[in-house]
Design brief:
Blueprint (H helix, E strand, L loop, with lengths): L1 H18 L6 H18 L3 H4 L3 E9 L3 E4 H13 L5 E4 L5 E5 L3 E14 L2 E16 L2 E10 L2
Parallel strand pairs: 1-7
Antiparallel strand pairs: 1-2, 3-5, 4-5, 5-6, 6-7
Length: 150
């Protein structure tokens, strides 16, 4: 039992020490930049730029919407962009986590706020997300999204 406990303890230390990328690493900085650039396009309603951040085989899992594919996700965002109100997404400071995925890309975790007008008043919600970024020879795109805690 003592050996089993020591093994779990060692694994926990390794995970917390090496799993999360330091904010100073190149990978963390790259994903932070991609997050900022992608949501700048979102906030500007720039669909041609925004949709370039996703792979064509995108799977988007949403707690209140189920599994969505690329075409549906883009159509849903286009409907949002066509509405007559100001859209804003902001990353909650200090919540960004980046974890490498060997020979694939990175996991991008955090919380963000979205604000919009609903029923004539400003609504602001904070939600959690997890994104899987695929690095295809330096071309980074999101292949999977888990959007939850709505």
């Amino acid at each position: 039992m003592k050996t089993l406990f020591c093994g779990f303890f060692f694994m926990a230390i390794c995970w917390t020490s090496f799993g999360q990328q330091s904010k100073a690493t190149e990978l963390f900085q790259r994903i932070a930049h991609l997050d900022s650039a992608m949501f700048h396009a979102y906030n500007q309603r720039d669909m041609p730029t925004f949709k370039q951040y996703f792979t064509s085989d995108l799977e988007w899992f949403q707690d209140n919407g189920g599994l969505l594919r690329y075409e549906t996700v883009i159509a849903n965002f286009q409907n949002i962009f066509n509405r007559d109100y100001v859209l804003t997404r902001k990353l909650v400071p200090g919540t960004l986590e980046v974890h490498p995925i060997q020979n694939y890309g990175a996991i991008h975790i955090g919380r963000h706020t979205f604000s919009h007008i609903e029923n004539g008043k400003l609504e602001v919600g904070e939600f959690k997300f997890l994104m899987i970024w695929k690095n295809d020879q330096g071309n980074w795109k999101i292949s999977r999204v888990v959007s939850y805690d709505h």
